């Protein structure tokens, strides 16, 4: 299954030509892309991953975070190859972008303002987020389809989306018991835990693997992408699998939570630790990062979901959550 996305993407007939012009409606107006672009500037914080998955090297990409100066994380390095797009950091520099002579600017989930959108649109057709999603809430598959349609690769984008969905389906079929279990993606910051709610990719990955979100959390879906919990009540974390998201949370602070001994997950070895790389892959949620997530997280969850503390969960062991 590891190579399914690549095999599907390369299957004849799935990457047929796409017609132009293409029309895009966004929170700032309507954009028409008249012809297949050749010089794409990617201002969305993760859209360059999808471009690379589709075989399109942007002339510039937006740096989000992480210890990778080129802005491309390890799961996308092979698709990048020897290319070195210009890396745009911090505030948008209209002068730098203009010098790149783009014929398309992808600004979905970029945080651009209406004024910035108008200025960018004077340089090249600029695509921002759709009104139904808002600026930062575009689902991973909708982003991939938008990117694919904008660069003339919508069939290829759809094929890779279908391949990822197929991988989820195969994993669910291989683990039918997960359909009767609950799972939570959580983090720890500021002295209290927080959970990611359905609608956020970190929670959605667990749901797509078959797990249910505990009812106490599922009822808040749609209110925000995450919810802070009380340090005095950890019962919402009483799930069959707890996926701790690294980043601002450290394994040491999680392990030292005063009420953690009252949780079932640490007692029964049901915790998985997402280190910086895994947390980054879950946060990107792209055509390239999601297959990488599935390659690496499924064995961890298998070890955690059995509820046997004698079965080591490698990530939890490495992070020091298991004493």
TrEMBL record:
<dbReference type="InterPro" id="IPR051313">
    <property type="entry name" value="Bact_iron-sidero_bind"/>
</dbReference>
<keyword id="KW-0813">Transport</keyword>
<dbReference type="Pfam" id="PF01497">
    <property type="entry name" value="Peripla_BP_2"/>
</dbReference>
<keyword id="KW-0732">Signal</keyword>
<protein>
    <submittedName>
        <fullName>ABC transporter substrate-binding protein</fullName>
    </submittedName>
</protein>
<keyword id="KW-0614">Plasmid</keyword>
<comment type="similarity">
    <text>Belongs to the bacterial solute-binding protein 8 family.</text>
</comment>
<feature type="domain" description="Fe/B12 periplasmic-binding">
    <location>
        <begin position="39"/>
        <end position="305"/>
    </location>
</feature>
<keyword id="KW-0406">Ion transport</keyword>
<dbReference type="InterPro" id="IPR002491">
    <property type="entry name" value="ABC_transptr_periplasmic_BD"/>
</dbReference>
<keyword id="KW-0410">Iron transport</keyword>
<feature type="signal peptide">
    <location>
        <begin position="1"/>
        <end position="17"/>
    </location>
</feature>
<keyword id="KW-0408">Iron</keyword>
